[in-house]
Queue: 2 jobs
Job 1
Amino acid sequence: MVDFSQVHNIDDFKRLARGYLPRPIFDWIEGGAEDEISLHNNRTAFDRVRFKPKTLVDVNLRDQTTELFGKPMASPFAIAPMGNLSLFWPEAETVIAQAAAAAGIPFALSTASAVSLETVAEKAGGRLWFQLYVFKDKKVNDSLVDRAAAAGYEALMVTTDTHMFPKRERDRRNGIGLNLKKTPANIAAVMARPRWLWNVVLSRPMPKLANLEREVSGSTTYEALANYFLSQRYNGFDLDDLKRLRDRWKGKLMVKGILNVEDALRAVEIGCDAVILSNHGGRNLEGSAAPFEVLPEVVDGVGGRIPVLLDSGFRRGTDICKALAIGAKAVMLGRPAAYAVSGAGKDGVGHMLATMKDEVDRVQGYLGCTKIDQLNRDLLLFDRQRPGANATMI
Ligand SMILES: Cc1cc2nc3c(=O)[nH]c(=O)nc-3n(C[C@H](O)[C@H](O)[C@H](O)COP(=O)(O)O)c2cc1C
């Protein structure tokens, strides 16, 4: 049982994760592309917007529930899809989904999950979204989509920003490829984290890409599945592919990885149910804008026809409330869930979600909002110091 008495924010969870995970694994979660400027900018973008609170309001009764696709969310955030979570904690995908269900928020399961989509649905319940990495092999895409439908997933979340192989230099330096290279430094890093070594490596079979086990013919070893995954990266994804998925998937369709208002409008036109602005947490295209920076123009462009969600860099209730005030429907948390499960399993994720909920509650109270949809742009001061900046630029 982890003592949470000194765990007050996401950075505290990060500290716990750093102490539990071997350094290269921690770096794999933490790192971004190239010089990590986009990674850094995802955080600093929030500092360029400040609050103008309304204090002459009775906020004795506060409610942060919202709805998405006609269903309630206990808080205006969800868990973003992350691959290989079970490399951090046993059955982490199920554990995080269970904690999300208990907190009344949705969980997005990655294609690259180490627990199959069927098992997560069976063991976790709650609102589940299935994230699809679109493969070259359309038969596999169709099969994954059909399996997610059969397992009762509410939404299909198509990721559009990972069609190139990202240049994450921490991983290259650390020798993270298909496997962690057996260098003296890596062996020492692993030996220095015995709890992780026992939990993830020694006490159970090594996690592998469980969703693909039923999709490939031949060997289903960890290496075979990982090789298959890499060989299937599809650079050709375009609007026609998205339309094809729209035709096949009858549930809610969300498009993740949008940063451009024209793409968002195309998604609206072909009948997608939500867009998720994302730069993959600064992990893919270095130099990409923070989703928070493009939020105003996308919200204005989409004009309320479908909900706009976003992720990348959200660590505080203040960040979440700023995005909602600009017009986002909800935000997604990535690394915070990875840190929380790494240090402390399901309890850790529960504590992390409660911490974020508490922060949102405090901010909405300070701002004079009894309901979360009362957050609006009048409560924000946009940074006008930069040349050319105006009220809708961040
Ligand atoms: C360790 C890790 C694995 C990820 N794996 C996936 C994935 O499998 N599919 C996906 O669409 N996004 C993936 N992402 C991106 C997240 O869904 C999300 O966009 C990003 O983490 C949000 O930024 P944040 O970590 O700053 O909250 C991953 C992110 C991390 C940190």
Job 2
Amino acid sequence: MNKGKYLLLGFLATQLLSVSAQPERRSERLKTSVDETTFRKHVSVLASDEYGGRKPLTPYEQKTIDYIAGEFRNLGLKPANGNSYFQDVPLVDATVKAKGGNFVVKGKKGRTVVRDYDDDIIWTAHKDKKINIKNAEFVFVGFGINAPEYGWNDYDGIDVKDKVVVALVNDPGYYDQSLFDGKQMTYYGRWIYKFEEASRQGAAGVLVVHDDRPATYGWNVVQASWWEHNLELVNDNDNRDLVLFKGWITKAKASELFEKAGYSYDELLKRAQRKDFKSFSLQSKADISFVNNVSVGISHNVAAILPGTDLKDEYVVYTAHWDHFGIGKPVNGDSIYNGASDNASGVSTILTIAKKFAELGVKPRRSILFLSVTAEEAVLLGSQHYVMHPLVPLDKTVAVLNYDGTGPSPATYDVVNHAQNTADKYVRIAAESQGRKYIPVKSNTGYRSDHFSFNRVGVPTIVTRNGGSLVKEGARGRKPGVYHQPSDEYSDDWDVSGTIQNIGLTFSVGWQIANMDEKVEWYPDAPYQRKK
Ligand SMILES: [Zn+2]
């Protein structure tokens, strides 16, 4: 079937009727679609060794963003930033030099020797070459949470200015289901939130106590993620308003520190779960000084616009981060972290969708913004920068569709959608037009990719995934164990039948959102709402 007919069928089906196509016919249609060739071409290029794992601020960044911008240009899309496809994203790249994280905490009952790497991992977002903190007092702040909507403020009644706060990982709901959202971790449970809050409270430093289970990963992940090269955004205050250092301390070392202050870890964990918990000084002090191996560089988001017609001042946004970990510690002799699934596949997805829009011959009513962001792996930095400096107004941004790790993925008979806003119905229509079962779920979309940056500022996002009902029994998506490893590589034997389904689905969703009179709105019970 040719492309024109496919598209026409797609539109008629999505807008007029719900057809339950036979799976055979559907897979035939998918096989003959041009999408698969386009998708595979982009992912094989971006995930090749020539792109060096696409680490921000390396020569491979230039190669990567040039490739994406080149594709946008070839498709006839307009630069989204004046006459440029690029948006500058200033980043600090900071590493506390080896052994810099050693310090000794003097408590009532003795000294705790904290050793860099084994016991703690700390770093700074400041640009200063030297960080010097004298005689800083340690304060136990429970979970380190100030959450008015849950009636919870661990910082109530205590001044932590110039002090070092020690906070437990996760949120109280992890231990007591009646608190917060129970086992489903809220953003307040994330270490990144605890760092932000400690800065807002004026603390000198913050240590999050690492515990495998509530953190959901081991100390080795902390070591691998933050000991070297910590990328940070540069904020409007040049980061001077942030804590002087932040990081992690092991549960074992924190327990020792608590004991030397006269408390047991278990006792403090229990106390921190009580609604009437009050933070308090551990009456323990330390000098913390280290050399900051720092450089400042400019990374880039890549953005292009397909202008709409009568509603062209409003935007539907497709996002996917382009960055990955670059060249690092070899595993089985391979040092290039290609990030084929994470996230060459997502970038290829938005390039494939951009091609579908560009070749349509019909313009959508609203404009479409294609946005490939940097430094997602360093915790959503490119998308955070974008929402602080949006290229199109956030209140005119109708909805965001984000892609992270879209392939390989086998075809399924079902689609799962986090149904938190009125785009819900478009996903249902599109899924049913593919003859697939629509499964709305109420659970949160999580914090681990760029949609969250948009959620935080109230822009509705759409996060769908293929369900578990496989068209081909035994078909496989991403191999186990390749996540964030050099083995996340592209291969021609990738099963992308589900990826292609998802491209068709979300292209259709974006098309519908771009053409309907009404905007997308959060449901009243959603955890996020438009900013007034
Ligand atoms: Zn990713």
